[in-house]
Every structure is written in C-alpha cells, then in structure tokens.
What we know:
Elements: H1 13-60, H2 72-82, E1 86-93, E2 96-105, E3 108-116, H3 122-128
Antiparallel strand pairs: 1-2, 2-3
Amino acid sequence: MSAPAGGSAERGSGSALGVAVLAGVLALVLLVAPLYSVFAMRARLATVADAAALAAADTRSGFSAAGSVSDPCAGARQIAVVAGARLDACEVDGLVVTVVVGSTILGFLVQQTATAGPPPAESEKRRIR
C-alpha cells in the first residue's frame, strides 16, 4: 500500500519521537541525580574533616576546642559524630593531627582527609617552595 500524497503514513511519528526523547532525558536524570548527592556529601565531609582536625590539633597543642576532652582523637570523634559522620582514622604526629572521616550514602563509601597543626617553621617554608 502506498501513502497518499499528503504523507499520512508518517502522521504521529513526531509524537513518538518526542516521547522517546523525553523518556531518555528522564532516565539520564534519574541516573545522574544520585551521583550529585554523593558529591554533596563529599563536600560536607570535607568541612567535617577540617573541623575535626582543627579541634584535635587545638586539643593536642593545649587549647581544648572540644570541651574538656584531653585526647585529640576523642575530640575529633565527637566533632565527627555530632556532624553525622564517623571518624575512620586519627593520627597524631607531634602537634600535627591527620583525620579521616567517612560516611555511606546510596551504598557509596565517601571519605575525606584533613590535616591540622601549627604552621611550618621558616626553614620548612623555604624547603616547601
């Protein structure tokens, strides 16, 4: 059978194509949107790691930023827990403290590391450059 001169055999094909494109865009959004929440969690954990490292370094140097806690890692753990994360690692090297905080979102383990301590000595600054 041949189509009439008006082209009615293709009538409605634009609607089907539009629905297909819309479905493809919706599927893409549904796949990508959860990843954005993982990136947002990573940014939040960076802030938590910074705060925990600073609190631990303050405690280690004699300033108790985390209340009456005398153990730097215990203070860092308090900060992490209050912020809704967990302290995965805490390493004290003199007055420098490095912490790793983590959380799980949508089945992804997200971790951030931060280090805090006194500024390097003048001789260290020249060597770093």
